Amino acid sequence: MLKKIITPRISETNITGHIGHTVIPVWLEEGYEEIIRLFSQNLAEPSLITVNMNIDFLHEIFFGKDVEILTSVKKVGTSSFILHQDVYQDGILCVRASTTLVHFDYSTHKPASIPKAFRDILKEHVS
Amino acid sequence: MLKKIITPRISETNITGHIGHTVIPVWLEEGYEEIIRLFSQNLAEPSLITVNMNIDFLHEIFFGKDVEILTSVKKVGTSSFILHQDVYQDGILCVRASTTLVHFDYSTHKPASIPKAFRDILKEHVS
Amino acid sequence: MLKKIITPRISETNITGHIGHTVIPVWLEEGYEEIIRLFSQNLAEPSLITVNMNIDFLHEIFFGKDVEILTSVKKVGTSSFILHQDVYQDGILCVRASTTLVHFDYSTHKPASIPKAFRDILKEHVS
Amino acid sequence: MLKKIITPRISETNITGHIGHTVIPVWLEEGYEEIIRLFSQNLAEPSLITVNMNIDFLHEIFFGKDVEILTSVKKVGTSSFILHQDVYQDGILCVRASTTLVHFDYSTHKPASIPKAFRDILKEHVS
Description:
The structure is a homotetramer.
Chain A: E1 2-6, H1 24-31, H2 33-39, E2 48-57, E3 67-76, E4 80-89, E5 92-105, E6 110-111, H3 116-124
């Protein structure tokens, strides 16, 4: 399980004093950026693309207190895998998200098998 | 059906030359901002909250060409409704999204029935 | 003079109901994106970098009404030029900005002379 | 002097692999958010507005390494003050910024004197 702390920013606070829901995918991406880096030597040669994102917004998130993002691998397929993420603030589960990423070969423009080395690392984070 | 044109911005273009997936929820929100305004006299007294967002990313979106967002109402419940959105660029369906919004009463901190006047307007956009 | 219309977004509205000042540079960049495109065949081979930005915030900008950005070229030097931008909402001058861009050669990592063809185009926008 | 660490985000990385210049004001605001909080009990009753921002972009900033923002108070006037900020990555000075904030009374819609208690705190950060 990956663990990431995010400090909500003034500019992410909307007119109601909450963090706008459109900010959450930005934070979730930071929650799994370690995995992105495992796959891509550098960001300019990406090999992972996001194909689905399903987010439940369960509770308001406020400016002024850090949030914690817990990321685990849910399922590893041949060329794709699913991440599960929980976002907590002050002990309250505020967001629950599921993201499907595909290992993509830009030269053939098709999904590609996840190499065994990466598959093994992903499996370490299954929970 | 609501129709909205968005011009991708330089700052929304990521290292691969595509629009990053985290930008899409911002655009989708603009796709249905007319509906948000129907419910709230002003943004500071919101009565709609987003409780779920499910997005399929089907095709890359590039800088340099406008996108079109088509928004329709999928289902109207007692206190919530579901929007369906399709995002096209150059005639290609790039994103398909489903968003669930709840009519929320901040004074009781509970979902509230959608007033008949709004329900009628929402039904006009059902497709 | 270049003219660009921007529609403020819900997600750009901050807790006070205004557009946060951090949003303005994003809009200003859209105000001169035509010039960026003149210099770069594509965004991945940039030849213009921003070296200075000086912004006066003169009046609040609100969600709900379009803004108009007027961009003119102020001064054209050997390898750099200065843009002047005025942002209006509802006939009120809200932002006045000055941006200095340098024609940059990434291979030598040094400023490079602005080619005559571009210099001529820039001069058309001097005011 | 205030010190803040920011981790560049994937979504802040532009097509050239650098952090886009439009991201910097967002980071700078986080660099002085402690000062904003001193003035406003909560963000919804702001008493500080940004009236000028002058930023020199001296060096590219990259994804993958934290940046450090050093903020000091430059000058304290009757109703306004100026902040100076330096942004470092890997020991290199990448951004130098000056921001002028005004203590503003929204009821009279005019600048207001900075209360002595805040003036004293600001003076502690003068350098």
